[in-house]
Amino acid sequence: MHTTNTRTSRRHALGLLAASGLASLAGLGALPALAAAPAKTPMEVWKDPNCGCCKDWIVLMEKAGFAVTVHDSGNSAVRAKLGLPQNLGSCHTALVGGYLVEGHVPAADVFKLLKDKPKALGITVPGMPVGSPGMDGPEYGGRKDPFDVLLVTQNLMGSGVGTRVFSSYR
C-alpha cells in the first residue's frame, strides 16, 4: 500500500511539473500525458437489479469520471441505515467521498458537493423526475420536468434531517 501512495504522489508531482512548464528545467524532458491524468473517483451504488433508469444514471456517472461499483440488492436498507428518510428517497442510493447521493442527481452537482465539502449527509433528487439524468432517454419524448437537488443536513442533536435547495433545474 505504501508503494501505491508513493507512486501516486510521484505521478501527481510529475503532473504538476509538466503543467507548470518546469519539467524541461528539471531535466525530465517531455512527460507522458498519463502523468497528469486524474484518478477516477470511487462511487458505490445500491439499486434494484431490474431498474433501467438506475443503469442509465450509472452510465452517465461513469462517463463523468466516477469508478462505479454496483450492488444489485435494492437500496431501501442502505438508505435507512444512512439515515435518509423515505420521503427524500429515490430508486438508487450512492456513496461517494463520504456523502450520500440519492436518486437522479446530475454529475455536476456531485462534483460540486465533493469540491465544497459542506457539513451534510449528502444530496438527493427525491422521486424520479422526468428529464433528470437517467430519466431522460428517448422513451420520455424530450420531456423535462423541473426538479431540485436538495442538500440533506443533520438537524441539531440528531433529531432528524433538514434540507435546502442545492441547485434547481427548470
UniProtKB/TrEMBL annotation:
It comes from the Bacteria. InterPro entries: DUF411 (IPR007332), TAT_signal (IPR006311). Keywords: Signal. Residues 1-35 form the signal peptide. It comes from Comamonas terrigena. This is Twin-arginine translocation pathway signal.
